[in-house]
Amino acid sequence: MSAKPASSGATTAFLAGAALLVAAAAPIVLGLGNYALGLLVSALVLSGLALSWALLGNLGGMVSFGHAAFFGVGAYASALASARLGVPVAVAVPLGGVIASASALTMLPTLRLSGPYFALAILAYAQIFRILATEATPITGGAAGLQRYPALPTVFGFDLSTRTGSYVLVLVVLTLFVGIYVAIRRSHVGTALRAIAESEVATRVVGVDSVRLKAWMLILSAFMAGVFGALNAHVIGFLEPDYAFGGTWSVMPIIAAVFGGYHTVLGPIFGAVVIYLFDQLVAKSLIPVGHEILLGLVLAAMVLVAPNGISGLVGGVFDRIKGGRRHAAT
Q1: Is residue 167 part of a domain?
Q2: Which residues contact 1 (CB under 8 A, 6 or more apart)?
Q3: Strand 158-159 relative to strand 154-155: parallel, antiparallel, unpaired?
Q4: Is the pTM for the entire model greater than 0.85?
């Protein structure tokens, strides 16, 4: 398996840059209010979590049912570091990612598992961390949670705690991780990881240390999820175990990534935005209780109509257009 051509990477980088410019300009051009910006911030947080899940699933070949573990650990680590230790929020947020990565080290034995066994093992870890956060009342506040910890700071006169500031910050962090994801995909490491996903036994035969590479992907995925958990904590201003480690943060990234097309870089991001806004603006309006049913139906329909998600559907349309032009030219 060879690395992807430079033209493909350049196209991906161009699309990511164009998407960033459009997204950054949207609040200003449209004059969105705080409610709409709040929805977009939450959608971008979910996008980052979906991207971290896709990194593990696409490159690492591992399906996780417990990304809430990393999200919650990052959220609590950042909130506690800033509130109890006086760590500046600008340092506490990446520190949350580091602590989430450290928590992933406890999961390294699960790398010997595969398929549903690995997925269920990670789910068990998420439940363990939720219980620990609930029982460690002197540190975490227990079931009552945390409420008094610093918000996002003001940087160079720009207040990141406002909805506009939070939106820009989360978008910039998301774009940074997209760049890292693209760089890994285009590297020899990415080539080796894709080979592992296709046949781990075959890659071991040729001398590839599959366990070590998968371990690095698990740690990086945990770091990304932890950072977005930390950002979300400082945006919303409260934490409780059932929220930070809730099943939503394990299930929604999967739905978003599959819906958008997790084999691409931008698919999980667009999928997360569409799914989250649909859930908040449509599904909850039609079915306030049990709105997840609509999400399940939409996902099932997408899998049947376009197994490769939105990105695969759009890519197929462009391929047919290009094919039609070539046929017309001949």
Answers
A1: yes
A2: 191, 194, 195, 198
A3: antiparallel
A4: yes
Residue at 215 is within a domain: yes
Total domains, the chain: 1
Instruction: Determine, yes or no, domain membership for 260.
Output: no
Give the residue numbers spanning the domain of 219: 6-247
pLDDT given at position 101: 97
Report how far residue 296's alpha carbon sits from residue 328's, in angstroms, rounded to the nearest whole number: 41
Please report which confidence band the pLDDT of residue 316 belongs to, taking 50, 70 and 90 as the band edges. Answer: low
Whether 288 is covered by a domain: the verdict is: no
As a whole number of Å, the CA-based R_g of the chain is: 20
Rounded to whole angstroms, how far apart are CA atoms 233 and 167? 14
- CB 200 within 8 Å of CB 210: yes
Q: Mind listing the pLDDT tens digit for each residue in 76-120?
A: 999 999 999 999 999 999 999 999 999 999 999 998 888 889 999
CA–CA gap between residue 288 and residue 302 (Å, rounded): 23
Question: What is the spatial distance between Cα 282 and Cα 293, in angstroms, rounded to a whole number?
Answer: 12
